[in-house]
Write a structure and sequence with these properties.
The chain has 14 helices and eleven strands. The chain is of the alpha/beta class. Strands 1-7-4-2-3 form a five-stranded mixed sheet, with helices on both faces. Strands 8-11-10-9 form a four-stranded mixed sheet, sandwiched between helices. A two-stranded antiparallel ribbon has the order 5-6. Helix 4 crosses helix 14 (336-349) and helix 7 (158-172) packs across helix 11 (285-294).
């Protein structure tokens, strides 16, 4: 397997983007990544998209996007793994370059969620239809069950959950592409509308339009580029597990995240302590805590204490979701995993602006689908 590098990154603003169509969003992010890479060559494309058919009535997405990007007839493939679709697209692009089949591959993600579709029903397709959705349980309800179990088992408090949202909104104020670039307080979180007890509105990631893209390249191609410091993908791993919560031994422990991260640490030949900056899949505040514990960043039940102590803020010992995370940056479900790679790349290049983590050299991006039934983990290394 060959080394693979991130050559270019691109991202639209995330939010309710009424003036941009599904295809417009993809093309905007892809063209920005192409410009950032300073290349006109693409050998292949992967497009992460969870529910284009339900959100905008569009399937056959690979061919559509290749056409509108002006890149037909190169191979273009749509990738679906629920909210991990973007991370899975990056992984497939990585494998294609690492195998030697291609030299330069575009990995992207796109979702247009605000054009009138039943978003709750569309997202619920990522849960178990017979055993969960049929009985009326949506994703806020499922994550609420996880939150209640975590609170019961470890003593995690309602205020500690709120502090995850507060921290990510603080980071989002420094991200010009964030959907919600403003700060919130613990009191505002606790006073927001109840969605599924104990989760309130400000514990939940929003409905979002947006796209992100990265261009991956072989070492030979990357070392000829002069635009940016080199960033290598040191590891790419993926795992899957039980779709439904009732099929799991412990609903507070994300075993797919643990498995994928263990594989990634082995591939990159590092331990969790070596990671300088992390993007995790904080679709709900409880998710960030559970992911931190499954990544082995701390013991089970201790993640909330780290957030409370400021350890996960920029300037802390382990900055997490410097982009604002899904909570403040936004969550266009097919694009979120690719946007994480773009954020980590910017950090490792030293190009993250006000949210730059000092001396960041190793970054990790964790993206998952459903309540964690699918998960990708990528570890990136800056070589400046």
């Amino acid at each position: 397997m060959r080394d693979v590098y991130v050559l270019g990154i691109g991202m639209t603003r995330f939010g309710e983007l009424w003036a941009s169509s599904f295809r417009d969003l993809f093309v905007e992010a892809a063209l920005e990544a192409i410009g950032d890479a300073e290349t006109d060559r693409l050998d292949s494309m992967y497009i992460g998209c969870m529910s284009g058919g339900l959100f905008v009535g569009q399937e056959h997405i690979g061919a559509l996007m290749a056409d509108y990007l002006g890149r037909a007839p190169i191979p273009a493939t749509r990738v679906e793994s629920a909210c991990a679709s973007g991370g899975a697209a990056v992984r497939l692009a990585y494998l294609e370059v690492a195998s030697g089949a291609s030299e330069i591959v575009l990995a992207s993600g796109v979702e247009k969620m605000t054009d009138g579709a039943d978003v709750t029903a569309a997202l619920a397709t990522a849960a178990d239809q017979e055993y969960e959705v049929y009985h009326g349980v949506t994703f806020p309800g499922l994550y609420a069950l996880m939150a209640r179990a975590h609170m019961f088992k470890y003593g995690t408090t309602r205020e500690q959950l709120a502090q995850v949202a507060v921290k990510n909104h603080y980071h989002g104020t420094m991200n010009p592409n964030a959907q919600y670039p403003f700060e919130i307080t613990v009191e505002q979180v606790l006073a927001s509308s109840m969605v599924a007890d104990p989760l309130r509105l400000l514990d939940c990631s929003p409905v979002t339009d947006g796209a992100a893209a990265v261009i991956l390249a072989s070492e030979e191609i990357a070392k000829k580029a002069q635009a940016h410091p080199l960033v290598r993908i040191a590891a790419s791993a993926q795992a899957s597990g039980a779709l439904a919560l009732h099929d799991r031994d412990d609903i507070t422990y994300l075993d797919t995240v643990a498995k994928a991260s263990q594989l990634a640490y082995q591939q990159a030949r590092i331990t969790p302590e070596k990671v300088d900056v992390t993007e995790v899949h904080d679709c709900f505040t409880i998710a960030e805590l559970c992911v931190m514990e499954a990544l082995d960043y701390t013991e089970p039940g201790k993640a909330a204490n780290l957030v409370e102590a400021g350890e996960t803020r920029i300037g802390g010992r382990m900055p997490i979701n410097t982009s604002g995370g899904l909570k403040a940056k936004g969550h266009p479900v097919g694009a979120s995993g690719v946007a994480q790679i773009a954020e980590i790349t910017a950090q490792l290049r030293g190009e993250a602006g006000d949210r730059q983590v000092a001396e960041a050299r190793i970054g990790l991006a964790q993206n998952m689908g459903g309540t964690g039934a699918s998960c990708t983990v990528h570890i990136l290394e800056g070589l400046a």
